[in-house]
Amino acid sequence: MRISLRIVGFCGKIYPVLELYMSHVYGEKGTLCFNLADVDTFVETNLKKDEIKDYYTKKWDNTWRRRPHKRHLFEKFFTECEEKKNAFEHLFEEHPIFVAFPRNHLIYNASLKDYEFFRVFDTYTAFQELSMYLGSKAQSEKPIPEIPDKIMVGAKGFNEWSFRKEPGQKKRSKR
Description:
There is one protein chain. A 5-stranded antiparallel sheet has the order 3-2-1-4-5, covered by helices on one side. The chain has one domain. A hairpin with a 2-residue loop joins β2 and β3. The chain is rod-shaped. By secondary structure, it is α+β, with helices and mostly antiparallel strands. It has 5 helices and 5 strands, in the order βββαααββαα. The longest helix has 15 residues.
C-alpha cells in the first residue's frame, strides 16, 4: 500500500485527503479518503486478513514489513490537520480554493472534480458555500459619503415650506 497526502482548502476550511494506492494485476488503483472511516473501508476491502489485523493493533511490529500502516497513525493525521487548520488561513487571502501537497507544492483554484470533492459537498452546496464565502469577503471600493441633512433636503426637492402652509395661502374648504 502506498500513500499520498493532500489538503484541500475550500472556502476558509481545510479537508485532509489521503490517496491510498494498491497494486493490482491491472496496475495501481488509487482511492481518495477524506476521513478515518474511508481509510477503514479501503483497508478492509483491499488488504489480507493478517494485514487488517495488524492495521487495527497499536503495537509496533518489527517484522519483514518495511512500514506497517496502523490505524492510529491515520487517526493522528486527521486530528493533527484539524488542530492545525488555522495555519492555512493565509492561503485563503487571494483564492478560495487550493490543494496543498507535501514539500510546499500548492495549486490554486484546482479542479475539485479530480479530488472527488463531490463526496464532501454536492455541486449545489459547493456553489452555495463558494457564493457565501466570496460574498462575505466583498467590500465596497469607495466609502459612501455622509451628506448633511440640509443638503439632502434640497437634493430631494423639499424646501422650508414643504410640510407647512406658506404665509398668505387661504385655507381650503372641504366640500
